[in-house]
Specification:
There is one protein chain. The protein is of the alpha/beta class. Helix content is 22%, strand content 23%. The strands form six sheets. Strands 12, 13, 14, 15, 18, 19, 20, 21, 23, 24 and 26 form an eleven-stranded mixed beta sheet that branches. Strands 1-2-3-4 form a four-stranded antiparallel beta sheet, with no helix packed on it. β7 and β8 form a beta hairpin. The longest helix has 18 residues. The N terminus is likely disordered.
């Protein structure tokens, strides 16, 4: 859910609300909620207006906002305490406007465990925290806890004596959590205090693999013989005071197309909790590009059974951005992302025969995972949504004929492209239905506004995380198909800029703000947030994508560097591979 923070008191984290006086009009789109049913617990306890559907006495404002206190609840009122328009089943309450939002819910008739259930959501700051408490009539604390977003959150006050007056209370302790569907039940004493342990569903960690550090005939033709993007990494230099460049790889400047080199990568990935590589896979009308990392390296590595692999068809326009100077204003399009139906047919047959049938190919529910990077190019290739759907259906039929139960078609969704020529197709929710897509995910947080060129030449990692988590919270409601969350390590594509590029102002695609504050500790915190929210979603497939295993020219790498060693891999291992 997204709400708007107007309080300016210091929060538990030491941070303050970003706004305290005025709500921009676009924040009317801020609230999303779950189902709204006020529940009554046995034992003499009942929540009044737990779904906040009773608006009696509230003062309506703009864009569905109401001021005042929801009937049945106590607290301090303000302008934006409830929104009755936005969300799946409005309205929803904004506790940050109510101080300590509370309600006496009755006196417990028989001794028991008091179980408070509620929904928490957030789509604005991305790191909100709601404190929930159960108290007695004398304000003695019976149970309390802090909650990030998730449906059917529960707080238990165990073995409460009969005759105890019960009060429930909520407070925003960090930014703006949204509250909905508050209910209370009473269970036999001790029955809720010692629940049976439930094993957490395993989470699949899939890291994107960019195959840009091995020789390729196209590199030789377009740059010079023997060129790879290692050349840019070696020549990288600081562009402003405090900028850390170059960032040499700890393992050296290896040729990833060699099986023994790929075997080292596979071993490290498996040892540190990465379950799959999603290869950026290039295929244009005139054939493949940069495919030897997969075809010669991974597929011939002796240990490739330890890590799964999948394809993300990187069907974007390939511009000559390696070593580009924006001042020259002469971007050259080398390979258009738009393909012919005949090329698509070749792609389908090739990936089934060469990749899907490999024992290490990643299957989701038994179906090969195939991701499409740029949906706008895919639609342009076929001329209409109907024709694009027919092309996907054709692919699905071929996969079934090959002996699989089906095909898992994933798409990369974004709002802001980070490559030249990138376009965002309109109406993603409708598009998902019309193309019968199976899932969505992201490639980088930069696609969702995490890169702040307003603070050029740097952009704060934590601020970027908040922007991304805000998008994810929206996605859980906006899209009818699963969205797999994404974790970004860093962004610094300065190695791709010409040595003489002007760094006094942003000038895409190579002169952008550089992310700072992206330490292994900050990345680990990102993974922990994502893990908690992923496990809190009962029907969400447990998959997370990471940018990236080796996006060296964009600065986002799990592979170890001289500066950070194995720090980012250690973060993955601690969060996903270490028993809790």
């Amino acid at each position: 859910m997204q709400t708007y923070t107007l309080f300016s008191a210091s929060l538990r984290s030491g941070r303050r609300s970003p706004g305290s006086l005025k709500m921009p009009k676009w924040l009317a789109l801020c609230l999303v909620i779950g189902t709204a049913l006020t529940a009554t617990g046995r034992g003499g306890l009942a929540v009044v207006n737990g779904d906040f559907s009773d608006l009696t006495g509230l003062t309506p404002g703009n864009d569905g906002w109401y001021a005042g206190l929801p009937p049945g609840w106590n607290g301090t009122s303000n302008l934006y305490t409830l929104n009755a328009r936005q969300g799946t089943t409005p309205p929803v309450c904004n506790p940050s406007q109510s101080g300590r939002l509370s309600q006496p819910i009755g006196t417990l008739e028989t001794a028991g465990d008091v179980v408070l259930t509620f929904d928490v959501a957030d789509v604005f700051h991305g790191e909100t925290v709601l404190q929930a408490s159960i108290l007695d009539g004398g304000q003695r604390l019976l149970a309390t806890g802090e909650f990030m977003d998730g449906d059917r959150q529960t707080l238990v006050a165990p073995q409460v004596p009969a005759g105890t007056a019960i009060v429930i209370q909520f407070a925003a302790t960090q930014f703006t959590p949204a509250l909905d569907n508050v209910s209370v039940t009473v269970r036999e004493p001790g029955s809720a205090a010692t629940p049976k342990p439930v094993a957490a569903a395993p989470i699949t960690v899939a890291a994107y693999y960019y195959p840009g550090t091995h020789p390729d005939p196209r590199w030789d033709k377009n740059k010079y013989p023997g060129f790879t993007e290692w050349d840019e990494i070696k020549a990288a230099k600081p562009r402003f005071p405090g900028h850390v460049q170059p960032k040499p790889p700890l393992w050296g400047y290896q040729n990833e197309a060699q099986p023994e080199v790929m075997a080292q990568k596979i071993a490290a990935a498996a040892d540190y909790g990465v379950n799959a590589f999603i290869f950026d896979w290039y295929y244009y009308n005139d054939g493949p590009y940069l495919d030897d990392a997969l075809d010669q390296g991974f597929l011939h590595a002796t240990n490739n059974a330890r890590v799964k692999f999948a394809l993300m068809w990187a069907n974007h326009d390939w511009y000559d951005i390696q070593g580009y100077n924006p001042a020259d204003n002469n971007l050259k399009l080398l390979y258009p992302g738009k393909v012919t139906p005949a090329t698509w047919d070749k792609i389908c047959d090739l990936v089934i025969a060469r990749y899907f049938k490999h024992p290490s190919y990643w299957l989701v529910d038994g179906k090969p995972y195939f991701s499409i990077y740029e949906m706008s190019q895919f639609l342009d290739s076929f001329g209409s949504i109907e024709n694009a759907r027919a092309a996907i259906d054709q692919f699905r039929a071929k996969v079934v004929t090959a002996g699989f139960p089906g095909l898992h078609v994933n798409a990369i969704v974004w709002g802001q492209p980070n490559l030249p020529g990138g376009k965002t197709p309109p109406g993603w929710p409708k598009l998902c239905r019309e193309l019968a897509l199976d899932s969505l995910t992201s490639y980088t947080w930069v696609h969702h506004g995490s890169l702040d060129n307003g603070t050029f030449p740097t952009s704060d990692y934590v601020r970027g995380r908040q922007k991304y988590l805000s998008f994810w919270a929206h996605a859980k409601v906006d899209y009818a198909i699963p969205y797999f969350p994404n974790a970004m390590i860093n962004w610094d594509n300065s190695p791709r800029a010409a040595a003489n590029a002007d760094w006094s102002h942003p000038a895409g695609p190579t002169v952008n703000s550089v992310v700072t504050g992206n330490t292994p500790a900050a990345f680990r915190q990102s993974l922990e947030i994502i893990k908690r929210r992923l496990l809190a979603a009962p029907v969400q497939p447990k998959i997370v994508t990471i940018n990236a295993w080796n996006e060296w020219p964009e600065g986002s790498c799990l592979e170890p560097t001289l500066q950070t060693g194995y720090g980012y891999l250690e973060a993955v291992k601690l969060v996903f591979a270490t028993p809790q």
